[in-house]
Amino acid sequence: MPAPGENLRIDSTRLWDSLDQMAQIGPGVAGGCNRQTLTDADSEGRHLFASWCKAAGMTMGVDTMGNMFATRAGTDPEALPVYMGSHLDTQPTGGRYDGVLGVLGALEVVRTMNDLGIRTRRPIVVTNWTNEEGARFAPAMLASGVFAGIHSQDYAYDRRDPEGKRFGDELARIGWVGDEVVGARKMHAMLELHIEQGPILEAEGRQIGVVTHGQGLWWLEITLTGKDAHTGSTPMNMRVNAGLGMARITERVHQIAMSHQPNAVGAVGQVFVHPNSRNVIPGKVVFTVDIRSPEQAKLDAMKAEVTRAAHAVAAELGLGCAIEDVGHFDPVTFDPDLVKVVRGAAERLGYAHMDIVSGAGHDACWINRVAPTVMIMCPCAGGLSHNEAEEISPEWAAAGTDVLLHAALEVAEV
Ligand code: HGY
Ligand code: MN
Ligand code: MN
Ligand code: MN
């Protein structure tokens, strides 16, 4: 049994080839991916992943949220497993590596263990979490949230996409409702490899981010109600313009985030304008505010200020205003002992590394509630993500997966 300190490396060509094959499923229009959760493309990607896990000698379990768990047996079947994984679903204009690197990197770790005849004491479980992105069905990290007991399964099943389709019906339609009770599995630890989705590691010349914390998040869905009217014949002082309200609130969100610098972000990404006709003053706008900070006080202050600003703008313009929390998690502190394991692995492997706070949300942020959890990050070009031009180098992918291998080997023996 090779000591974790040995200079073991994964097969980076095989990893890169698997990433490339997965990217062919649910392709985007500009070189990235559009493999949104619970679509036929998502199902096709799941089947490909399952076939690879089978070929690697793993047994597959699926729970009632469609979370996939591929197990590689350990020498001690009673020992709680080490889980590692992320998500295969993508944004509508997503990249090839967001989430996918974490799932296929974990699979590559198992393939490497097989090549080297390594037997770990603890079982190893490679995981694909359903609907991490929250782009089609809010909130993000939905299925890992149900697994961690944050959301009920009924709440999750009743979530609807912009066309009104129900999560539970779509999961059944693609045939991925498993038989395991979600959340019943117990973990010794969870390791998640993910691209940074920000510019820090590349700018600092580091190959590895040792993720100590994660930002907290609020998604506030705001519905402004005014009155549809003719854009030509309606006098300006008689308009009840929900579109104008959305524009003013969007500006206020930006100002509020800027007023809490550093470590605060805010934007509006999703907007539905009704009736969305060129010559009709919008009588209704539904949009989601995304605000985040690693500092609890700033996060809570921004939520209060955005809520006040929305109601004030609505009152100025005579609009109805309803605000619904459609996503939230507090700032996350990952397991300090596992952070040390990841840092030590990067050091032994000779990879330049630094501690980092995750700007994006991840399944690990919820799993951290039920098991010791840590994340490993690799850089991405220009820090760009949630964009089809998302890019990483094979070397970065290999560095992150090497660290995942060494961390898993160490954690599987304690
Ligand atoms: O929104 C997020 O941070 C993640 O990409 N779902
Ligand atoms: Mn992701
Ligand atoms: Mn994402
Ligand atoms: Mn909270």
From TrEMBL:
Molecular function GO terms recorded: hydrolase activity, acting on carbon-nitrogen (but not peptide) bonds, in linear amidines; metal ion binding
Keyword Kinase: no
Domain Peptidase M20 dimerisation: 215-313
Cofactor note: Binds 2 Zn(2+) ions per subunit.
Gene3D superfamilies noted in UniProt: 3.30.70.360, Zn peptidases (3.40.630.10)
Entries under InterPro entries matching the protein: Amidase_Cbmase, Bact_exopeptidase_dim_dom, Peptidase_M20, Peptidase_M20_dimer
Pfam families: M20_dimer, Peptidase_M20
Superkingdom as given in the UniProt entry: Bacteria
UniProt keyword terms in alphabetical order: Hydrolase, Metal-binding, Zinc
Designated name of the protein: Zn-dependent hydrolase
Species name: Pseudotabrizicola algicola
